[in-house]
Structures are given as structure tokens and as C-alpha cells.
UniProtKB/TrEMBL annotation:
Gene3D superfamilies: L,D-transpeptidase catalytic domain-like (2.40.440.10). Belongs to the YkuD family. GO terms for biological process: cell wall organization; peptidoglycan-protein cross-linking; regulation of cell shape. It comes from Rhodoplanes elegans. InterPro entries: LD-transpeptidase, LD_TPept_cat_dom, Transpep_catalytic_dom. This is L,D-transpeptidase. CDD domains: YkuD_like.
Amino acid sequence: MAASSGLLAGCATTQDTSRLQPGGPVAREYAAMYGAIDTEPFPIPAVDLSTIDTRFLRREVAFRTTEQPGTIVVDPGARYAYLVLERGRAMRYGVGVGKEEGFNFRGSAVIARKAEWPRWTPTPNMIRREPERYGKYAGGMPGGPENPLGPRALYLYRDGQDTYYRLHGTVEPATIGTMVSSGCVRLINQDIIDLYRRVPTGTKVVVLPSGGEATS
């Protein structure tokens, strides 16, 4: 999958807000990138690419930042997460972010834990805000195809403490590029698997305020 992830590797300085045209070479490449995965404990369906703006699909881009290669930079305002690469490049992923500005984590953290098919437990704040929706999951939901964290989760800690924010997959890929979550950063399942493979525990994550300075 790493080989195909650079299929649009030029200086992607413009944002294509169109949908993919069926049958074209780019559409075929993305269909392979976001195809069904049957090598996991649970099946991961192919992504319906007609529901996602092409600018939020994975690609390598030019990226100016003072962060070191290997750092993840999340720009909630632009709805992107960048994995900083060498020589002014980054792997860019479309994301969904908190539905209200106050829900979003800001600043620096580290990935202290990685999990495949993670268990999901709503935070106490989520249960307080929407008890009818989240109260029944207070004891947690095991990993699986209905779990909102999807097939992978990267857990953000600051000063040794869990922030309760994660980068994770989603059961709703059409929400990528929107403000919809309770503050976590969600990626297409195929993208969180790709990112998960690339980063070890201890990876630095920087979450910019909306309107941050990341440039691509």
C-alpha cells in the first residue's frame, strides 16, 4: 500500500473539490488504495469514493514545517493530518474533527499506545452530554466492525497522562472532511491502517488550532 500512496506525489498546492470520474487511471489507483481488506480479524469494506471529496484522499504533498520527520501534524481547520517526511514532503490524510471548536485537542502530545481493533469506551464528558446515546456503552464496546474507533487507534498522552484523544478509524467514511466527532481525529479505515504502520509509539503529534500555519 505504501507504493500506491504516492500516486499523486507532485506538489499538490491546489485542492480538487471534485469527485473521481469512474474508469480513469486516478480512479483505478484510488480504488486499489481504498479497496476491501480481507486479511484482518474483521472485514473492512471498500470505501465508496463517490462520497468523499478527492482532496481528502491520501497523497504525498509538499509540506513546509519546522517539525522533524516522523512527526504527525493535525490541522483541524483544513481537515488534514500530515506525517512529516524528509526533504519538505509529507503524507497527507483527510480527517474528521470535533463538531465544535471546544471539543478539539490542541498542542503537543505523544503516541503512548497503539491498538489494533481497540475497545471503545465513551469519556465521562460524552456520557454526561448525551446519556441516552452513550450511557449504555459506559462499560465499553469490544473491537469489531461496529466499533466507532475502527480497526486501529493511536492514543495521545501528554506529560504521561491520557488526554482521551485518539487518531482512529471510522465506521462513517463519508464524514471525512467534516466537523462531526467528539474531539478525536478520525481517518478512513484504510488510511489509519497505513498511518499506524508508519509510526511507532513515542511519535510526537502536534494539533494546531483552527486556522493553523500548516502549508501544503
